[in-house]
Amino acid sequence: MKDLRQLLRWLDARGQIAHVTREVAPDYELVAVAKKINERYGKAVYFEHVKGSKYPVLSYALSSREGIAESLNMEPQRMVHQWSCREAQQKPYRIVESGSVQEVVEANPDLFDLPLCLHSDGNNGRYITGGVLVARHPGLGMMNASFNRCQLVDKDKLRVRMMPPQHLGVIYEEAEALNKPLEVAIVIGASPAVMYSAASKIPIDRDELEFAGALSNEQLDVVRGKSIDVLIPANAEIVIEGKVLPHVREDEGPFGEFTDSYVPVMQNHVFQMTAITHRKDAFWHDIYAGGTEDLNLLGLPIESEVFNHIRKFANPEDIIDVVTSPFVFGCFIRLRKRNEQQPKNILLSALASYAWIKFAVVVDEDVDIRKPNDVFWAIQTRCCPDKGVMVIPGVSSYTREDVKDENIGKFGIDATAPLHKSHIYRRRTNRMYDQIRIDDYYKS
Ligand SMILES: Cc1cc2nc3c(=O)[nH]c(=O)nc-3n(C[C@H](O)[C@H](O)[C@H](O)COP(=O)(O)O)c2cc1C
């Protein structure tokens, strides 16, 4: 899919977008309504009228895994396998003279005109949460993309969270060492492939706009910035161009982040806006940190990283799926087991594959790892705690300064049935269960 609009059309055709016509306020209300609708109906939410802004707002666009698979040219059940195949590739982008994201160049750009939201009680103001920040590496020249929250401060000023080892922070330090600002484009409503490239961690010397093309197997069109030397996805919705200033830091936060707790105030970077461009009928994209959309964005790159590591201990086709669910600090692995030692080797490898992974569970191929309750069922009925649980003391997982002491140690659970007793652990079946259509019997 070349742009986010294509995904919207795909979701709309399947009744998977809730259109809210009633006006909502950007302070708390929009986020609360979107969260409730997504929790109850699992849909993306499109707000047509947002108080104080001419832009509609989209949220939870990437909450459906089927939609994500479709937008990346993948199959929902094969996403980690397909991501892993494409991960090493790059697809050069094409620089085009004009793009819809520059249909309008604001004459008097003002950040207060944009529908930035206030997400949680205690947040220090309104934030951009769905922006992909694109910058050029000063030495290597390639484009980096990442998500970074930005706090609204003034009509032309934001504060940005972008600390090393995250690549934007590293790139910024190189510019700062030269006493130069770092030119950055904040891209709102980019294509799903660009968003997924931004959420992934590939080596710093690889161009993440080229990686977006490789991920979806579709060349990306880019335009040159109006006020900065940065390449911008041509079919995005809105772009805020500007510079992150050298040698300037200001207090940013608190902010209610994806762990459902607050990041305290930190000294972060300052962004000076230089231009705003957008489509004629642009919409804004808001991502609720820790919501299904955010967890899907964070999850798939982690799942693929786990898969890349554990495939050394199994035929890759025997690793049927890997899922971080319901949160990204743990993962479930669905395995066609070949010997009794295999789950332990896989657990060890999974726990080492990604810093955040605090626990991992290996289950048999007949367990649905996309349903956490099925995994709990497997732990309760198949795990032998005496020999199926491994604890790795002393290693760290999530290292946010104020909670890092509680994130020491990792554990793995082998919840597979012994191979020689597979006939005893066989799940019962009912030949009609998959055949009947419930609507033929009962309508709610
Ligand atoms: C919605 C969303 C918001 C994010 N916000 C931040 C942020 O504010 N600061 C940060 O360092 N990482 C944030 N991340 C994580 C980075 O975007 C992610 O680690 C990315 O892979 C880093 O890219 P890099 O390969 O350029 O280092 C966020 C991720 C998502 C999906």
From TrEMBL:
SUPFAM superfamilies named among the record's database cross-references: FMN-binding split barrel, UbiD C-terminal domain-like
Single annotated GO MF: 4-hydroxy-3-polyprenylbenzoate decarboxylase activity
Residues of the 3-octaprenyl-4-hydroxybenzoate carboxy-lyase-like Rift-related domain: 96-291
Stored Pfam families: UbiD (PF01977), UbiD_C (PF20696), UbiD_N (PF20695)
Domain 3-octaprenyl-4-hydroxybenzoate carboxy-lyase-like N-terminal: 8-84
Entries under InterPro entries matching the protein: UbiD, UbiD-like_C, UbiD-like_N, UbiD_Rift_dom
Residues annotated as domain 3-octaprenyl-4-hydroxybenzoate carboxy-lyase-like C-terminal: 297-415
Biological process (GO), any one: ubiquinone biosynthetic process
One CC-aspect GO term: cytosol
Entry protein name: UbiD family decarboxylase
Native organism: Formimonas warabiya
Upper classification of the organism: Bacteria, Bacillati, Bacillota, Clostridia, Eubacteriales
